[in-house]
Design brief:
With 460 residues, the chain is an alpha/beta fold. The chain is built from 13 helices and 18 strands. The structure holds S-adenosyl-L-homocysteine, iron/sulfur cluster and FE3-S4 cluster. Iron/sulfur cluster binds next to helix 6.
């Protein structure tokens, strides 16, 4: 699809920083890494004197942080971009900027296909945004190379008490369905001391829960120089030792790198939460091989057994793809078997979506969409039934809940998360960022309900 907006594109983005308090509007698509990157974009823009606008029509700069993981993600973004095009038609001086994985995956084509886009950049050049915005030359844009960690930029955090921490960028895996290695590049780990310093600053700033981010967090450190190299488990221990950090989460680990030291850390480090997101993708070893996941069903189940042994109460969540090319009914049934056996607390389920420049898109035996949809329905039924059953273990217990705000469904109640990453809606008094004890009285597949315990606030 090629787009035009006749003669609307200026020779270059206007030098916005010269104006009084220019306003930006940023829309974020995709995963937590994009949430993180967007907080940094906002932090950087605000340090340059921009302020956040409530709507696109009020913005001098309309920004998008894009995702391309599945076709739907592309479609959603294009619909938003159309709207921005309408704004620009009415106010031609508006600057449109597109960052993130979609921009990276189409690179310079962005400007050909969408000539009203002024600035485009990949996930590795967020720190160059200011330079791009002020540049007179379009050739200053579109390097699309990794040039620096977004995590080193100032952040405007969505919540005062929670912080994302980018521990690595990129991915060295080559999962045959996945676009990420081509959008985020090779894996590069950040220096451990600079991560400890960053988390210390966050703690001083009132953050009590951090989520460590990377495409493959548990291969952290392997690329670091010998003098500073530490493992992911060691990094967890260093962060656990920081005063004020009460909860550590991370996403996503890869099952192939899920070693006993990391699992033991969940049992030993007081602030490391009892939750592991362990992406399965498929329960069939031949499909896992075609996906190039580098583990078999048996090896995955060994990891699950090890988790259950050391951290019996651990919340387990996963990602599953149905309808991967060549997936037979028998393969799919193996995925269902794993779901039954493990009993996940939650699973993110996806119908396979062919992605540009991935090997799986070229495979024969693409599964018809309606077969994918039918399998998805069966999968969701199994996931939810098992999650509902598993959630009953919490009923009658008192859980530590970090309050996030009001309940979404019932504003008279509070909403928070347990250490297992379960959403808890409860009656009680407290404000966002506080940790309280909640007596759990009910559980569905998605949420727990309860009453704030009269006994005590959470300590520790
Ligand atoms: N690095 C992480 C997450 C990658 S993207 C990891 O490896 O776990 C998040 C999820 O999107 C993946 O786990 C996978 O389940 C899903 N996904 C990725 N590419 C996909 C595709 N082409 N079609 C459908 N789902 C996909
Ligand atoms: Fe994609 Fe696989 Fe890397 Fe995850 S591990 S980002 S699924 S290539
Ligand atoms: Fe999407 Fe890129 Fe994240 S493709 S899922 S925004 S790493």
């Amino acid at each position: 699809m090629y787009e035009t907006l006749a003669d609307s594109r200026p020779a270059a983005a206007a030098p916005l920083t010269l104006r009084a308090m220019p306003a930006y509007h940023l829309t974020t698509f995709g995963c937590q890494m994009n949430e993180h990157d967007s907080e940094r974009m906002k932090g950087m823009l605000e340090s340059l004197g921009y302020q956040e606008a409530d709507s696109r029509t009020e913005a001098d700069l309309i920004l998008f942080n894009t995702c391309s993981i599945r076709e739907k993600a592309d479609e959603r973004f294009i619909a938003h971009l159309q709207e921005a095009k309408g704004v620009k038609r009415r106010s031609p001086e508006t600057v449109i900027g597109v960052g993130g994985c979609w921009a990276q995956s189409v690179k310079d084509e962005v400007f050909q296909r969408f000539p009203y886009v002024d600035v485009a950049f990949g996930p590795g050049q967020v720190h160059k945004l200011a330079e791009f915005l002020n540049s007179d030359s379009l050739s200053a844009q579109g390097y699309f190379e990794f040039e620096g960690f977004t995590g080193e930029l100032p952040a405007k955090r969505a919540r005062d008490f929670q912080g994302w921490v980018q521990i690595s960028v990129g991915c060295n895996m080559k999962c045959s369905y996945c676009i990420v290695p081509s959008t985020r590049g090779r894996e590069v780990s950040r220096d451990p001391q600079s991560l400890v310093d960053e988390v210390t600053r966050l703690a001083e700033d009132g953050v009590s829960e951090v989520t460590l981010l990377g495409q493959n967090v548990n291969s952290y450190g392997r690329d670091l120089p010998k003098e500073t190299r530490i493992t992911f488990a060691e990094l967890l221990a260093r962060i656990d030792a920081i005063d004020g950090i009460e909860r550590i989460r991370y996403t996503s680990p890869h099952p192939k790198d899920m070693r006993e030291d990391v699992i033991l850390a969940h049992a030993q480090l007081p602030s490391l939460c009892e939750h592991i997101h362990l992406p399965l993708q498929s329960g069939s070893s031949p499909i896992l091989k075609a996906m190039r996941r580098t583990y078999t069903r048996e090896r995955y189940m060994d990891r699950v057994a090890m988790i259950r042994e050391h951290v019996p109460d651990c919340g387990l969540t996963t990602d599953i793809i149905v309808g991967f090319p060549g997936e037979t009914e028998a393969d799919f049934e193996q995925t269902l078997e794993v779901v039954e056996e493990v009993g996940y607390d939650q699973a993110f389920t996806f119908i396979y979506s062919p992605r540009r420049e991935t090997d799986a898109a070229e495979l024969p035996n693409q599964v018809p969409h309606e077969v994918g949809v039918a399998r998805m329905e069966r999968l969701v039924e199994a996931v939810q039934r098992r999650a509902h059953e598993r959630a009953q273990r919490f009923v009658g217990r008192s859980l530590e809940v970090l309050i996030e705000g009001e309940s979404r469904t019932d504003p008279g109640r509070l909403r928070g998360r347990s250490r297992h990453n379960k959403v808890v809606n409860f009656n009680g008094l407290g404000s966002a960022g506080e940790r309280v004890m909640v007596d759990i009285t009910g559980a569905t597949s998605q949420t727990l309900t309860g009453e704030m315990s009269l006994v005590a606030r959470a300590t520790g």
